[in-house]
Amino acid sequence: MQLLTQSASENVHTKLRSDSVNRRIVLNSRPVGAPSSANFRLEELAVPAPSGGQVLMRTLYLSLAPYMRGRMIDAPTYAAPVAVGEVMAGRTVSRVEASRHPDYQLGDLVLGYNGWQQYALSDGTDLAKLDARMARPSLALGALGVPGFTVYVGLLDIGKPKAGETVVVASASGAIGSLAGQIAKPKGCRVVVLVGSADKRRLVIEELGFDACIERRSAGLSEQLAAACPNGIDVYFENAGGAALDAVLALLNVGARVPLTRLMAYYNDTGLPAGSNRLRLLARTLHTRRIKMQGFFISDYRHRYGEFFTQMSTWVEDGRVKLREDIVAGLENAPQALIGLLEGKRFGKLIIRVANDKPARTHEGSDESHRPDSR
Q1: Is 80 helix (H, G, I), strand (E, B) or coil?
Q2: Alpha-carbon distance 206 to 204, whole Å?
Q3: Alpha helices in the chain (DSSP H)
Q4: 229-243 CB burial, b ≥16 within 10 A, e <16
């Protein structure tokens, strides 16, 4: 065990730690096609000690998301790739274990980007304080975090749904898609969603109350979508790509809006997809039907975060937005959980519980499931 003592010359806050080992998961090799467990490696290092101006944090929750697949390739996208041998990137909720920083105290709850590890140091520039009394701090990684903010600006600023319009959401069982459909519904829209399996379809219909739900991989997808959208499609929240985009394209109305946040179907591609090149069809459709298709990153909307947080918190509290968290216990389970996410096997916001903060319910062995509620 390691104990940091208070110095007269520095503001130091600390407590005894239960161990002196920092377990972390690094990128072991770059995947070719779909990632496998061999692309990750678990390491154990000494827990670092903060120097002047730093804080030491213990990770409580780690967010897993599809974008992490892009960070594993050796090419820059919107962010630099993770280097082989370096800690996998990821947003986290942590508690301050020791502080030599005047703005952070022992026990503070913080939102940061510590990656796949139990402990991390920071100079405070990449941290945001959270209310230490939060009943569910993990929500800062989901509905009240990046996924929720993505939906807020993508759907409301770019999609601009209006009463009487038809909104289609590509992947409605994930952290982003499930929120997009719920926000569009109270606008008076017909909401049609796509999911990846029969189990997800059942859960989406039972819990979220959308007007229609279709399996993306089912036979006759185009015909099913056309039947569910008799008046065409006015807003398509694109977060999947693949067959979903092909089916939607023919049904987009004049003046339709397409917020583009990701194309998950292509993440594991190592070359051009099979089949005909549909770029000409896409370009012609965008032009002749005067469709607005816009990619975006929430980093362009930082000035809107306060507004988003206040509004989304209200929607969660009053039950307009129902939540489902897919929580997996144990840092060592992060690689397989991410692989499952990319294969469409998870439902809701996927989070790794790295350390116990409060007693949690257990569901199906090492996994915990927080079903929709209005807390």
Answers
A1: coil
A2: 6
A3: 67-71, 146-153, 175-184, 198-208, 221-228, 243-249, 279-288, 305-318, 334-342
A4: beeebbbbbbbbbee
Nearest to 296 by CA among 78, 70, 59: 78
Strands 21-27 and 40-46: antiparallel
Neighbours of 287 (CB within 10 A): 9
pTM above 0.90, yes or no: no
Comparing CA positions, the residue from 346, 318, 322, 324 lying closest to residue 334 is 346
Give the whole-angstrom CA distance, residue 33 versus residue 86: 20
Strand partners, 24: 43, 117
Q: Given its phi and psi angles, is residue 53 left (phi above 0), alpha (psi -120 to 50 degrees) or beta?
A: left
Q: Residue 260 corresponds to which tokens in the numbers above?
A: 């583009």
More confident call, 335 vs 10: 335
Non-local (6+) Cβ contacts of 226 within 8 A are: 250, 251
Q: What is the mean pLDDT of residues 362-370?
A: 41
Tokens at residue 141, please? 């990684």
Identify the CA nearest to 83 among candidates 28, 122, 44.
28
